[in-house]
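Re: beginner question about structure tokens

> Can someone show what the tokenized structure looks like for a real chain? I only ever see the sequence side.

Sure, here's an example I had lying around. Input first:
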Amino acid sequence: MQPPGRNTLMRSPLAGAQCMPRLMLALLLLLLSIAATGTADEAQHTEYRIKTAFLYNFSRFVVWPEEKLQGRSEFSLCTLGNTLFGEQLDTLTGKTVHSKTLVVKHFDKPEDTLDCQLVFIGQSDELGETLWILKQLPVLTVSDAAAFTEKGGMIQLTVVDNKIRFRINIDAARTAGLTISSKLLSLAISVTGAR
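And the corresponding structure tokens:
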């Protein structure tokens, strides 16, 4: 029972902040349920939007070592190689991730991505070399390349039953000093390594 005169609709200012992780998790669940259907162009555009949203949410559900983000004003989400949805990724520029302004950068050489926090690796003949260069750096590696997590990548986007899903290699993330949220792990279709 509320005391007389008390507004039952008032909430603590912290209530909104506490709901944010739940909201992001709900968005991720919604993305998992969206099928890439329709015409080929519509399906491709939908796929690019979904992959873009996944990358943004991955950045929010992974924790980087404090020294990697300390003193920075920007969070760099980078692409490497042939990425068909680079223009869609550019729409993320200016969003906030870990209290930093997200910037999207596009590169052709793996050594140019060393200062990035998240790298989406497009189709590349140099996948093994790229993963070797980034292996022990606190850089979240994501790709839609086949067998990406088996080759040492951290998160692989894949299509299952016309839906974009993902696999996680938690050992690769730990080697790089990254911590992946248990919420994100619970949404993966497979997790390689010890939880």
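Each token stands for a local structural state, so reading them left to right follows the chain. The first helix runs from residue 13 to 33.
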